[in-house]
Write a structure and sequence with these properties.
The complex is a heterodimer.
Chain A (H helix, E strand, L loop, with lengths): L1 H27 L4 H8 L7 H11 L7 H13 L5 E2 L5 E2 H36 L8 H10 L2 H15 L19 H37 L3 H8 L4 H18 L1 H18 L5 H11 L2 H29 L1 H5 L2
Antiparallel strand pairs in A: 1-2
Chain B lengths: L1 H12 L24 H19 L36 H7 L1 H29 L1 H16 L2 H12 L7 H12 L1 H15 L2 H9 L3 H37 L9 H10 L2 H4 L2 H29 L24 H5 L7 H6 L3
Helix pairs in contact in B: 1-2, 1-10, 1-13, 2-4, 2-13, 4-5, 4-7, 4-8, 4-10, 5-8, 6-7, 7-10, 8-10, 9-10, 10-11, 10-13, 11-13
The chains are: A mainly alpha, B mainly alpha.
Amino acid sequence: MRLIARRLFFYLVTAAVAVSLDFLVPRLIPGNPVDAVLSHMQGVTVTPAIIHSMELQFGVDTNASLWAQYTHYWNNILHGNLGVSSGNGLEPVSDVIRAALPYTLGLVGLATLISFVLGTAIGALVAWKRGSWLDNLLPVVTFFQAAPYFFLAFLAIDVFAVILGWFPSGLAHQSTDFPAFDWTYISDVLDHAALPALTIVVASAAGWIVGMRNVMLTTMDEDYVLIAAAKGLPKRRVIWYAARNAILPSVSGFALAIGFIVSGALLTEIVFSYPGLGSLLLQAVSNDDYALMQGLFLIITCAVLAANLIADFVYVFLDPRTRQEA
Amino acid sequence: MAVGIGTERATGGEPGPGTERPGPAPGRPRAWRLPRSPKIIAGLALLAFFVLWAIIGPFVTPYSPDEIFANSPVPLPPSGAHWLGTTSLQQDVFSQLLVGGGDMLLVSFLAGVIATALSVVVGVTAGYVGGLADELLSMLANIFLVMPALPLLVILFGFLGKSGSNDLFLIGLIISVTGWAWGARVLRAQTLSLRNRDYVDSARIIGERRSRIIFTEILPNLTPIVASSFLFTVLYAVGTYTAMAFLGLVNPNWSWGGMLFYAQGANAEVSGYWWWFIPPGLAVALLGTALVLVNFGIDEFINPRLRAAGLTRRGRAGRDGRGGRTRARRSQQFALTPVVPAAGARP
């Protein structure tokens, strides 16, 4: 339990750092959200009053002290106020994000889970069959690991959507379909999610495969595996003994991977015009919509931290040593 | 330069398959031995190819990458005049491809150097000094490790605006800010393990200055990990720079990510203009593969059990009896600099 408490504390600190970064970046880096919005407002007479009201809107009130701005910023965040999105008709950022969040959570969450399970299993197998033809899998896997996610997305669309016509090439559901809890709608959503999910799985499984293989090779030399084999246990049980010990670093290395996968998945969404956070991110970039960028950074960071917390719980559940410590 | 460092690392002490060699070969400078692992050779060859590409590419383009040909409304497929076809603006894809590697390699190399320097400073300090400094530095590294890089980079580059986005040094600097933490963590772990070794203890007892111990006893033994983290960061920077160009956050004229940016803008993937997006994507992927391959080679060197040919029990030689799992724990027995063999050869 002490481990969980420590980790929880760490994640809280990280979240606080993320909020502070979100606050500091606009103030430290030259470039001003107000100017950016003004440059989009051609033909409007800009009075100092307008500028000041915009500064207030973006929280860069030049009359207040930095500390006052900072506390004000925190107050806003804690009340769920992320500002307004200039690219979406000044709609609150939180509403804009809320509309897109389920798509990303569903797609990226599921794809990450599948790739973890699949990648770990394949990694264990490749390690067990060391020296066999399965080793040839590694260069292929390396290629997928090194290729940008969004390039794989390009390929997936070209091959599976355009040439073969198996899947739709973008969006989350047909425009004629309306959200309802019936099979037509659900199957439509799944159909549209299949290709982006496949891309994310193929691109991210490589990391789990290599990681699992490398630890598994070390674990296979342990005495308890030798004993299990010497006792004449079925091969499946022996692999299981080795694998469940080898999986621990993969779980604890989740933190390293999840941020990376999420980053790649967001770009994948953009290629598929999938209406999740990734597409919002692109929209924010092309509209110079700073409040939306900042809001997205916060939400995505919090989601990643939550995923890490879950991984930590799993780790404590898997490894009895962490529980004895308390 | 990436190649240089990789080579130096890789050739330093590769024991050579099938030969058990306890110490440095007498009278033969190890640094000049060729790497034997096919992965390292393939990786280095590919890397050299890309470096040449980046240097020579801009001088051998058949056309200017901005030049506009013919007035066809759609991109034209590969032909004799345009080997890789044209874009929707009727620019030559092949010329863009030749020009597109230079900036990216430069930025990635820069980011790799800065991030590696940062990770060595933070990691070694945290590991060697310990105490409160360690707690704080480790926390800092972990925070940067957990934070998803892409949205952070988007706000950083976003606020920088289009004005600063051509400054390659600045881009490299920003990428390295999000890329140093992994190396720092690994280096800290290894420094922790090294600082209590006998030879470090003896140096301390002799009364060596702390800076000398760090520079002559600790750092040389971290070389493989530093090299590996350098390559890892370069790989990360390649992906990140491509992603930023793909988002249009850094000037997309002309980089491989920028080509993908324009291709996506013209719906090349839906319209089947494969000659436009496959070449730049493939180039990034191959460059990445080269870096990963060299890194694999270093990994296998650090932990011989990872070798495919490791069916023999050679790997057990380095066993420390406690079943150490992390490569950091394992690496010291196979570190290549003279320091370790000398220490290990003591009866």
